[in-house]
Amino acid sequence: MTATPTTQPTAPDNASQLSVIPLTGAALERYIASEPVNPAGLPTSYEHGGRLTAEGTKVDPIIVEIVEGTLASVEMEVETAISRTSRSPMIRDAHDFRAGIHDRQLRKLTGRSYSALVHPIVRDFPLETMSEGDVFFHNDVYESEGGIGHLPDLCVTVPVFHEGEVVAFVQAFGHHDDIGGACPGSMPSGATSVHEEGLSVPPIKLWDKGVPNRAALRIMTRNSRMPDSLAADLDAECSACLMGARRLSELFARYGRDTVEAAFDAILDNTTETYRREILSKIPDGQYVWEDYAEHDGVDDPKLHTQRITLTKTSTGGPGNGPRLIVDFTGTAPQAKGPINHCGDYVGGNFLKKWLAPILRNLADSPERMAELDVNEGIVPLIEMRFPEKGTLLTPVYPAPTNARTFVILRLLGVLAGVVAKAVDGKMPADQETIRYTGVYGKDRDGNDYLMREVLGGGSGGRYYADGEDTIHVVPDSRNLPTEFTESRFPFIVERLGLAVDSGGAGRYRGGLGYEKHIRMLKDANFMSIADRSILACWGVKGGKAGRPFEVTIDLGGPDERVVDALADAEPVKAGQVIRIRTTGGGGWGDPLDRPYDEVERDLRWGKVSFAGARSDYGVIASGSRDEPVIDVAASDALRSELRASRGDQPFFDRGPGYGRLASGVEAADVDWL
């Protein structure tokens, strides 16, 4: 059976303005032959996205279940192998990496977690040139076809062979400690060019038929401030993906290529049909507009960097002339001078479709059903993405910096949730925590350089049926670093790690709480932070209030106490000083004055809400102790009546007081009203 050819991507109108790297050999010959050119300026001559078997091919549903389970098992085994054999805290302990399995048409088959794309590898290395034991590598943001967002994300890809032909791919990418650049950690907050952010590697063959390219590895480790960790992590990822490729080869050997590929098509067809029937059907036909913002870019003064989505739902035009979604990013702000840009406009937004689609699962009939829905390539045909011209936050022009692109791609999750909320009467969660990197670096007790970075989570948004979750991590399976590990390895003491009281946005359903962490330095060091939501907050919806923003205080309680900027590369911290980190709380859902008294009492007993917060946020007057709070029902009823009478019309979304600071005193955007 042969794959159905697909239409080749074409160059954008302004492709001649983009930076083009010199081409040699076969790549140059293809270019001279006037083959299509991708936005990175490189030849794009490969099939992708088509079916492996003819439409209507039948396969035993039990075989489909076995194949699907095997794929999930192999993906998990690859990730487990990486976590057990890697060395850096970011990979081994924080688990900031992902694995994925793709077919030979480059379609993502697994849906437990997101992953990068195989497209740039097959673009530069045709399938017929690949051999068993090959491992491909890249981290170049502008040549990754949108699959890599910033340079610290290093990606390895291994082809899977059956009877001498490539039949699938195993891929892993992770956030590594340091790959060079202007500051430790390779995420300079004030970068104005990608060249300041570290070593950029286009797709290369890192292993050739099982033999590592020692020269390339030496170049990469030589550019890193943490060469031993980088080398060990790359070994772990390459070995794990090679192991995963062997596992998949066994699957093909057991059932045969025709059967396995028919099962691949069936898996993706099932996803398409499930989302069409259970998710898209919940969105009324029509057009809906909303926007949210990043607050700063590390170079210019804080301002509103707009990210806008116009969502159009139609009942026709999708697969089988069924429903489809059009996601139009027109109105998104110009690319920033600083590193908050994200290259999203590649391969029709293929990566962004799979990145954003998990938000749609909130429309499932129940939380239990939502948890069952994977996001794989099957959602791609249901969504059309339309991008603005080159030169915006989502369509940056090389060499715009990108290391803090999380301010954009994570914000887009909330923008999509918000625009869908307008369509479904708010039955989407309020805004969730956004990833941030904090850390310290300096000399350890033995005088050696060290770098400790952490991806602390925050609160998720309240939902129409439940409170948000506390201290969750938006990166799947990621976690904070264990105190026992960090104290034994780095020169500081963790004096507190708990919930940040009152950080969750007030609502009928409260937003989840963020972390509060206190670190006492034992030696002079430097603090670093790549974070937003320090001015703007996680928004509340349908009467719910915004959560509390991110905040870092240095020398807590001391003579030099100060709140530092959320984007910082080298904030000095003296031995003995305490760093307090408070992460974001999720937004609230629904009117907080409707929250039942017994739930407020529970929050008081659990220490999630203070007595002052209960009064100001929920109109609840309480006395007694935290262990035994007593609510004055009559006084609370009177206070709630007074608060209701004193407030005027309220927008559908609450952004918190920080929005007015950046919007010249305006409390809400035009799009915040229904």
How would you describe what is shown here?
- By secondary structure, the chain is of the alpha+beta class.
- It has a domain at 61-271.
- Helix content is 27%, strand content 19%.
- It contains 15 helices and 23 strands.
- The strands form 6 sheets. Strands 1-4-3-2-5-6 form a 6-stranded antiparallel sheet. Strands 13-14-20-17-18 form a 5-stranded antiparallel sheet, with helices on one face. The protein has a 4-stranded mixed sheet with strand order 7-8-9-10, with helices on one face.
- A hairpin with a 2-residue loop joins strand 5 and strand 6.
- Helix 2 (61-85) runs antiparallel to helix 6 (227-255) and helix 6 (227-255) crosses helix 7 (257-278).
- The protein is globular and about 80 Å long.
- Mean pLDDT is 92; it is low at 1-36.
- This is Hydantoinase.
- Residues 60-592 form the Hydantoinase B/oxoprolinase domain.
- Pfam families: Hydantoinase_B (PF02538).
- One of its GO terms (molecular function) is 5-oxoprolinase (ATP-hydrolyzing) activity.
Gist?
By secondary structure, the chain is an alpha+beta fold.
Q: Top keywords for this entry?
A:
disordered N terminus; alpha+beta; 27% helix; Hydantoinase_B; 674 residues; Oxoprolinase-like
Strand content: 15-25%
The percentage helix is 25-40%
Sheet/helix structural class: alpha+beta
Cα gyration radius (Å): 25 Å
| Strand segment tally | 23
- Please work out how many helical segments DSSP would assign: 15
Can you list the strand order of the major beta sheet? 1-4-3-2-5-6
Q: Distance N terminus to C terminus?
A: 51 Å
Uncertain stretches of 5 or more adjacent residues: 1-36
**What would the average pLDDT be, to the nearest integer?**
92
Major sheet: 6 strands, antiparallel
Categorize the overall geometry: globular
Domain Hydantoinase B/oxoprolinase: 60-592
GO molecular function, one term: 5-oxoprolinase (ATP-hydrolyzing) activity
Protein name: Hydantoinase
